[in-house]
Amino acid sequence: MDSRDDNVEIIQREMTAFARRARASAARMHPELSLVSFTLLAHLEDEQGCRAADLAAHYLLDKSTVSRQVAALEGLGFVERRPDPADHRSHVLHLTPAGLHTLAQVTGRRRTAFHERLADWDPEDLHRFADYLLRYNDGGPQGR
């Protein structure tokens, strides 16, 4: 392997380790919220609600996967369905007050965990890392 192939292999391996750590961390932050559930709650907050089909399209997930996740979040009392004012045949998902509260708690814990993990990083390294993550994640649909 040349240097580029070696580096791509390292990036792939480390991104996989990062994803595993993120899933495990999500379970510790709130035992009833998977990383996917947390992500969906955060998106619903950012968008001030949206349809389940919009969640599936945004995250490139199967509609049945989103449906199961939404049903679990509804069962926990974190999400509610409201009639779509633009189309009364469909519903828009919104966070409940309990969902907003739980999301804020988990977000705070995650932020603290990141601060702790990155505490000894040089500010310039943090800046470069943030820029690289933005660049990577802005790489188009396959990067998301």
Task: Write structural notes for this entry.
There is one protein chain. This protein is mainly α and 144 residues long. The chain has six helices and two strands, in the order ααααββαα. The protein has helices at residues 3-29, 35-47, 52-59, 63-75, 97-117, 123-137; strands at 79-84, 87-95. The chain has a two-stranded antiparallel sheet. β1 and β2 form a beta hairpin. α2 (35-47) crosses α5 and α3 (52-59) packs across α4 (63-75). The protein is globular, with a radius of gyration of 18 Å. It starts with a helix and ends in a 7-residue tail after the last helix. The mean pLDDT is 90.
Can you tag this structure with a few keywords?
144 residues, mainly alpha, 6 helices, 67% helix
The 3D shape can be described as globular
Overall pLDDT score: 90
Instruction: Give the count of helical stretches.
Output: 6
**Main sheet properties:** 2 strands, antiparallel
Order of strands in the sheet with the most strands?
A: 1-2
Supply the helix-strand structural class. mainly alpha
Low-confidence stretches: none
Number of strands: 2
User: What's the end-to-end separation, in Å?
Assistant: 27 Å
- SSE pattern, N- to C-terminal: HHHHEEHH
Range of helix content? 55-70%
